[in-house]
Amino acid sequence: MQTLYTREEIHKRIVELGDEITKVYSPITDEIMAVCVLKGAVHFFSDLVLEIKLDVLYSFVQVSSYSGTGSTERVRVKSWLDESIYGKHILVVEDIVDTGVTLNYILGYFSKYKPATLKVATLFEKKAHRKIDVPVDFVGFEIDDKFIVGYGFDYDQRKRNLPFVGVENA
What is the pTM of this model? Predict the structure, then answer.
């Protein structure tokens, strides 16, 4: 396996993202709600919220358009918000924005409930397969068309717990 990003490189970038997010939100609020898109974003979410210098409310959704190594057109919702987001500053925390299908679904649904702001942070952005142009406000890294594992990214639920991001047989 080839390592694309070490644990140290990921952490350094997450600290920078936390600072960027704090700078954007602090003039308008002292509290945000960060919504983790499970399962892939769990490591990124956990590390990112520690670096945001505001009060951060946590919420979780489990939504996916992936199966195996590829994205599908169908969005599967396994769990959804159980609290109101009306008038709140929402930060959706994704692991990767690839086709834009999943994120477009989430943003469309959240928008109906009139949050004060709705922004997106993603650890990785991969534009090679983009089908829907979705707004991404905070990007950790842009990557080429590679299937990655580790640090929350999986291959059929395996390899999520690797402390780095890598590519098999690269």
Answer: 0.91
Residue labelled with tokens 């959704």: 61
Whether 98 sits among the annotated catalytic residues: the reply is yes
User: pLDDT by residue (tens digit) across 4-53?
Assistant: 999 999 999 999 999 999 999 999 999 999 999 999 999 999 999 999 99
Q: Is 79 left (phi over 0), alpha (psi -120 to 50) or beta?
A: beta
> How many CB atoms within 10 Å of residue 24?
16
* Phi and psi, residue 29, nearest 5°: -160, 160
Q: What are the sequence ranges of the domains in the chain?
A: 2-167
CA distances from residue 93 to 31, 36, 156 in whole angstroms, order as listed: 16, 5, 21
Catalytic residue among 55, 82, 98, 145: 98
C-alpha–C-alpha distance, residues 34 and 36, integer Å = 6
In this structure, what token pair is assigned to residue 148?
A: 């990655």
Fold of the domain spanning 2-167: Rossmann fold (3.40.50)
Side chain identity at 13, as an amino acid letter? R
